[in-house]
Structures are given as structure tokens and as C-alpha cells.
Specification:
alpha+beta, 7-stranded mixed beta sheet, 5-stranded antiparallel beta sheet, 18 helices
Amino acid sequence: ELAAEWVHQLVVPLADGVAVTMSDISRRKKSEHELDRFFSLSLGLLAITGFDDYFKRINPAFQRVLGWSPRQLMARPHLDLVHPDDLEQTREVFDRIRAGECIGDFENRIRCADGSYRWIAWSATASDGEVYCIGHDVTGRHAAAEALRASERRYRAIVEDQTELICRFLPDGRLTFINGAYARLLGRTSDQLVGEDFFSLVSCQHREALTGALAEAEREDRVHTCELEVTLPDGAACWQQWTVRALHDEAGRLLEYQAVGRDITERRQAIERHTQLEADLRHAQKMEAVGTLASGVAHDFSNLLTVIFGYTDLAAKLLPAAHPARPYLKTIEEVATRATGVTNSLLTFSQRRAIEKRPVNLAELAGESMKLLRRVIPRSIAMHQQVEPAGVWVEGDETQLQQVLMNFALNARDAVADGGELRIEVRGDEDEQGRPIAVLAVADNGPGMDEQTRQRIFEPFFTTKPRGQGTGLGLSIVHGIVADHGGSVRVESAPGRGARFTVTLPAIACPQDQGRSEPDTPFSAGAGETVLVVEDDAFVRSIIASTLDEEGFEVIEAADGIEAVSKLDELGQRIRLVLLDMDLPRLNGEQVLERIRRQRHRLPVIVLTGNPGHEPASNGNGNGHRSTAVLRKPFQMGTLMQTICHILGKPRQQEAAV
């Protein structure tokens, strides 16, 4: 009985009897019983094998887990139960155990009685020619791991097939995952990019926006979106929209960030184009407003110049020919004539001035322009001029052609602002068909421009100057002017080789009478004819009235359209001539002229206007009217009297003018 003490009794026969030796083995028997009990009750697989690979002892767990009976297991080497793929590794492990190594982390697959296999994790050691093994069934763990791997494969397949850019990265920016679409965009493989710094892929000026979005995502535990500019390996810049979220563990600690991005370069470019178009529209509207203002200024300035011309002419008539003040009056007249060019420039700027073509000597035009340019171009820029002495003639608008030359020259000045050369060339040549052409060229030795810039140089609103320093309209206007003159413009430039703008225009022969000034033809004085002067500007009206009075006319004045109509109705046939300004208050000049033509069809009318392109709508029935003339402001009083003489049919005097 186990409860009683166990003794070991040794009986030895003697000659005269027997010798009995007894020893207490209760503790040993108790240990053996506990070992048997441990073998029987253990959930793990316990086994003792010999070095011959046969089981010496196994516990019931073997039958419970694998389905084999103890007799079946004891009858075969344990290696017969190992999966073929794991057999070689299992042999190697048992060889190491026999050599005295203790194994604690070995797993293999063992065949069950039903033919299936289960994963067993073994710990084993050898002692006294036997191997003591403890095994645990880890099949469930392996199944879970395989399910996890399958899920990961499915996840990766979904992620890799996406066109979106997907990645995960640690708080310090190191990438832990990057999908194929993102890797292909960066020109590398996913494996190469894992471990790289995600922040380094973002341009410096947008990293603050990224870190701000990450901070918000971590703090608020929700997704945040930001737009970033990224430089690709080929140097191209693209825009990406990223949605980021923070991933935390169960304790709330930040593990990593997950980010999904998409290329929005085209969308950003469309937005920028739309924004630029809106800016261009606002700029165009502003330019239209400025043009309207310039037109108004030109109108008022023309009136002032007309007054200056008039009083200068009157003063000259009152002074003897040798009076010392006459040269000063001549200077005033010359300055006023030059100011007329300013008025024309304002009208050209406001696009309210029609092209007035006449023979123009480009050589003289270049010389005059050089004088103006020397005032605005610093001495650090050397200016050279090469023109044909005989001159090169074209049919064109002198003011607009000078605008072309000045625009090219001022652009060249900006290109060599730190010092350089500017060269203007005027020469005659022939085109491919042998027709005569005039060539106007402006060149500099500045930094030049690349091909992309050269191709766009004449586009409206395109400029290479910093924001606020250029409108981008100068060269587009120049291109339009040259086209209106039947010519062409060519640009030659390359980085580091300066720029050369060449304009070719149809050339004409030198006019026969060019250079011979025809003296002013005097006119017959008035003989008391009544002239109605309709002009809202008091100074202009006054000088015209004074001039006509000096010339023997009776003058009736009207300051607006209503007063003019009233005077016409009141005086009737007494009025022999009407000087009619078009820009009148209350009733405009067109309306007044229409009433005149209805009431007195043949009454001579001289229309006064500051708009060179203006033709009165009531000027006859579409073919002009013999009793209507147009006089452009500003004008000199001599021109006014010649026009009056012509329209009234007065004979010209042949004696010299005073």
C-alpha cells in the first residue's frame, strides 16, 4: 500500500540461517508515483525516446492530440510520424540533442492517426542515453498566422492595385510601407524606399503644412488633408493631396501614420490658369479704365494745345517781324507741336487713335529715338546706331513705329541693366521675291532667353519680369503694330548670347517732295460772314472767336448743344458756317449735326474732334458731304483758317504771310 511505508528487503542465506537487510524506499516510490501522475495528467505531449529513435514512454496526451494508441506509437520510430518537409531538419535537431545540446524552440509537423498533420513545438534534452521531450500543440497559432498572412496578401493586393499613393511611416518620418503606385512615381522599388525619410520627399516650403496636418491628426484622432508640392526624381514638380491619419496602440501611444495621396497637378494647374485668367481679366478691365482716362486726358490736353497754338499765333501777328519775343513764341509753338505727339501717344495707348499712315524715314525715326533713349538709359550701357545715310522709307504711322523701336530698346536696357551694349540698326534689303523691304533691328548682349521663353515672348500678359514690374502687353502690342503695317518680327536669342529683335516692313521709294517744305498759303480774310462756334471749352472757344474776329468774321458763341440749336433757330440764314465740337454737354455734336442736316442741308460745318478715327455719322448719306470737313485737335489757327477758306470756297491769297 502506498499509504504504508515502503521498504526494500534483502534476504541473504547463511550457513546457520538467513540475514535480512531492510531499507526505507517510501520517498522513491512516492516520486515515481508523482511522475506517473504528471505523465498522465499533463496537457502537453511528454515522451521519452531512446537514441534508437523509438519511444520508451509516452503520456496519454499523445493519443488525445494525435489519435495514436500507445501501442501504435511504441511500435515505430518517432521519425516515421514527421512531415516529409520537416524530416531533414528534425534529424539534425535530434543529432544535436544526442550531442548534449538542449533544444527549446523547435517546431515540426506530426502526422495524426487520421492522416492530417499538427504543428508541435518541442523542448528536449538528453540524459543517460535517453531523450526527454515536451511538446505543445501550436496548430491553432500557425493557422492564425497563416490567416494573417493571407489577409496581408489580400490587403497588399488591394493596396498595390490602387492608383492612389499609399504609405505608412513612423513619427520620425521613416517609411514602413509604400505601395507600388507610389514607388513607381518615385522611380524606385518599395523595398528600396522602406526606411527612407517621407519628409524628404516633400518640398521645404510645404513641410510645415505636412507636420501641421500630422499634428492635427494625432491630436483629434481623425483624418486630415493637406496639399503638398513634391519634386520628382527627374526634377519635375507635381502637386499631391494627402489624407493622413494617426494609428495608436491600445494604450493610446502613437505607433505610425497612414497616408493616402493622389496626384492633383492637373487640377492645381487648372485652378492656377483660372486664377490667372481672372487676374488677366481684372488687369484688362483696369487697362480699359486707364485707357478711358488716357483718352480723356488726351482730349483735355488737345484743347489746351489748341489754345496755346491760337494765342501764340495771335501774339506773333501783333509783334513786328524783328521783335525779340518772336523766337520765344516760335519755341512755344515747337514745344506745343512736340506735345501733340504726347497726345497721340495717349490716344494710341487708349486704342482710340486710328493708324495714320504716311511716308516715314526709319533712319530719321531711329535718330530721334536715340535722343530720347539717351535720357532714360544709364551711361553704363553703350549705345550704337547703324543706319543708312540716304534713309529707308516705309508707309506707316510714325508714332506707332517709334513705339515699336522704343519698346525693343527699353527691354534691351532692362536686359543689360548692370552694363552692356545696345545696338540699333536700320537698313534696306530685299525679300525672297526681290521686293524692297526695310529692316529695323534692336540687339543687346544681355543674358538672352531659352527657347520656351522665346516661343512665348509675344503672348499677351506673358512677362519674364518680376510681379509688379511688367504687364506682359508691350511686345504683344508691338507684334500687332508690325502686323498692321504688313510686316513681320523675328526674335533670335539663346541663353548667354543676348537677344536680337528684327522687324521687316515693306519699303517705299523716297518721296520726291520730301525735304522741301511748302510755305503756308495765306487765305482771304472774312467779309463779315456769321460763324457759329459751338465749343464747351471756354478757352478753346475764346481763341477761335478771337482769331475769327481778327480775320473779319462775325462770331456767335454756343457752349453746349442745346444753346447751339437755339442759336441756329434764332439766326437762321444769317449763319454761314458752323464750327462744331463733337464732345458737347446736354446735346452732343452728332445730334446737333443731324439737326443741321435736316434743316439746312448745305450749311458748311467744320467738325472739331480730338479723336483721329472719328467720322461724323451725319456726314452725308454714306458717301460724305461736300459741306462738312473734319479738323483734328490740336490744330493751329492757320490750319483752321485754311479749312474755313476751303469750305467757304474763298480764293487763296498769293502774297507772303506776315
